[in-house]
Amino acid sequence: MKPNKTSKKEARHISLVYKWIGGVLMIIAASFAIFTATIYSVVNQEFLRQQTSSSQNVVQTFRSRLVKVNQRLTVSNVVPILSPNTERILQGEAGVKRSTEDDDKGEDVVNDPVLAVLSNKDLHITIYNDRGEIAFTNDNHPQLLSKVKKAKRSQVVNTSSGKVLRSKAPIYSQRSHKLTGYLVVDNTMPAYNKVMKRLRRGIFIWAFIALLLSAIASYALIISFVRPIKLMSKVARKVDEQPDSSDRIPDLHRRDELGDLSVAFNHMLDRMQAYIQQQKQFVGDVSHELRTPVAVIQGHLNMLERWGKDDPKILDESIKASLQETDRMKYLIQEMLDLTRAEQVDVQFPHAVTKVSEVVKRVVGDMRMLHKDFLIQLDIDNLPADTQIKMYNNHLEEILIILIDNAVKYSTNRKEVDVSASVSKKRVDLVVQDFGEGISQDDLQKIFNRFYRVDKARTRAKGGNGLGLSIAQKLTTAYHGEIKVESAVGSGSRFELSFPLLEK
């Protein structure tokens, strides 16, 4: 069966690097385009404003003289009215001759604005009569009036040599107010065309350089961000293939969110593998510890099935033994569940706070009531009433019950248990001491192991499963505390707990 197009599209993989670089370049290109378009528009408008103002001055200069003509504009009446030397310039004669008549009239021919305009090769002047016929021009290629009349009063026209600013105005006789012709001024704006051409070229060059440098810088920056993500992906795939893998993300030496993410990622993998180990250990412990009581119950039931049900004594003995093993299984399963939960308290109770004095008083009071033949002493003189630790109060209560219950179980002739609590060096210290059997040095290193019993026969008789101290240790370490034990055979044991003080 061939894969369809949809599955192919879904399977297509595009690297985050290319997506990121593409997005960055698009943003930079758009920003650069907006910025350069704004600059180009401002420069263009300013240039055109200056050129338009200059062209309008030329139009006004020529109109001020042409309005003096009272009839249709022709070469014969236009040339003399513009300036006595206009014809000489149009004929290509160099220089401007100053006549005696000019001196007598007081006219400054050299500074004549009309002659200055006509001498400017960038300005093309064309004068039409009311019929559209050319009456005067200094343009080698003048436009027909029909084409010119379609244009606005001032308009930029595109030509083969560049942009031309065309300004036009009708001419009316000053005396009769009749239309005598039209004036058209074409400003070729060579400076404007040159500057704008260089500006466009510069924009394209700098746009290319900016995009190239941005792409290089973006690639280097994005690679530094993507590399840790690739490492995380690689480690995640390995752990997915082998859940027991010890592969972790190496130290990235980054003080940012990616560095925090790598630490959190490693912590997550550690926690996940710890949960897997807990599950395996729980299953293994259950199968191991429940094998004996199940075998005992099965043995009694087989015996009853064969012949014991007819013997009242054997029947009563088998029922009692089965019930005893059932109770032991019930407590065993509960303790194992407590042990599993003890390793997850930071998730279940992350913000729990306990007032130590209240819990200690309550537990000691309860244990005194249960064991009236024991002297359970309490010393909390060095524990302020408002002392608090970051811990779920039921868990502190459970730890104290386990330690005091063990102290009672393993006491011999001296039925006495001392419990004390105090504060020192920003720590809360709790001590449970008994004066019973004690523990040998060889066993001290193993008493916190699961199902470990110093004396299995005596412990089984006292109802222990060997999980109490394991639960106490797990709960203590889960709340960043410490548990230590000092003991000597025949002199009793001293368990010390220490937790960080929760400061106000």
DSSP helical segment count:
17
Supply Rg. Answer: 52 Å
- Taken together, the total number of domains comes to 3
What is the oligomeric state here?
Answer: single chain
Taken from the alpha-carbon principal axes, the silhouette is: rod-shaped
Helix-strand pattern: HHHHHHEEHEEEHHHHHEHEEHEEHHHEE
Question: What would you say about this model in short?
Answer:
The chain has 504 residues and is α+β, with helices and mostly antiparallel strands.
List keywords for this structure.
alpha+beta; rod-shaped; 12 strands; 5-stranded antiparallel sheet; 504 residues; Beta-Lactamase; Heat Shock Protein 90; 17 helices; 3 domains
What is the topology?
Layout: H1 5-11, H2 16-66, H3 75-82, H4 86-90, H5 100-105, H6 113-119, E1 123-129, E2 134-137, H7 145-148, E3 154-159, E4 162-172, E5 179-187, H8 190-241, H9 257-289, H10 291-306, H11 312-342, H12 345-348, E6 354-355, H13 356-370, E7 375-379, E8 388-389, H14 393-409, E9 416-424, E10 427-434, H15 441-444, H16 456-461, H17 468-478, E11 482-488, E12 492-500
Parallel strand pairs: 7-9
Antiparallel strand pairs: 1-2, 1-5, 3-4, 4-5, 6-8, 9-10, 10-12, 11-12
Helix pairs in contact: 2-8, 8-9, 9-11, 10-11, 11-17, 13-14, 14-17
